[in-house]
Amino acid sequence: MDDFAADSLLAPDEAGKQPIKTFFLELFKVLILGAFAVITIRYFIFKPFVVKGTSMEPNFHEKEYLIIDELTYHFQMPKRGDIVVIKNQGLEEQDYYIKRVIGLPGERVVILNGRVKIYNPEHPDGEYIDESLYLSPTVLTFGDIDVTLDKDHYYVLGDNRPASLDSRRIGPIPAGDVVGRAFLRGWPINRVGLLAQQYLAQ
Question: pTM value?
Fold first, then answer.
């Protein structure tokens, strides 16, 4: 008798069941992996937010739909000009606020005569920041502010300077309260686009 291994055969009724069982098993794997990917992206990388209020007009309007990048700031610090979402500072019912980063950790921020001046090692005598990319020249930053930021705090302002609840009232923002940066505007259709390069201060 030849020394060959016996073929592995399926009974006729099992032959039809095996592909179906395999199909549903593979489908289950795909669904689990897909759900895991969606949950990971939704809760740990990108998160949707709807703009409430007028504090960021004219650049962001009520009910606009934004996608927030929550990953980037795990690898780098927020930059001046970034549009960030921060946690509620306990002054209103909203859970989050959207603001613009103006002052970075360790800097001295001075607001006087409607303009913002930053003091840091690169500019020990102070330098007025150029906000012409996102603010009209007629917009004045009200307030009489002179504050030096701690090493883990940021100074944030709304683009609608006359009507924004921001660091002028609530103070500097701890780094841990920065949720992420506005990455994409998803609604309305005529304003859809990436935000990272549209509203960065020079």
Answer: 0.73
Q: What percent of the chain has pLDDT over 90?
A: 37
Q: Is 55 a catalytic residue?
A: yes
Residues 92 and 23 in one domain: no
Give the residue ranges of DSSP H helices in 112-178.
167-170
Q: Do 132 and 74 share a domain, yes or no? A: yes
Is the pLDDT at 46 greater than 90? The verdict is no
Per-residue model confidence as pLDDT tens digits over 55-64: 899 899 988 9
Instruction: Indicate whether 200 pLDDT > 80.
Output: no
Q: Which residues contact 103 (CB under 8 A, 6 or more apart)?
A: 80, 109, 118, 147, 149, 154, 155, 167, 172
Report pLDDT digits (tens) over 150-195: 999 999 999 999 989 899 998 999 999 998 888 888 878 888 778 7
For residue 116, give its domain range.
51-194
C-alpha gyration radius of the chain: 26
Q: Is 99 a catalytic residue?
A: yes
Which among 8, 17, 99, 167 is annotated as catalytic? 99
Catalytic one of 21, 52, 55, 79:
55
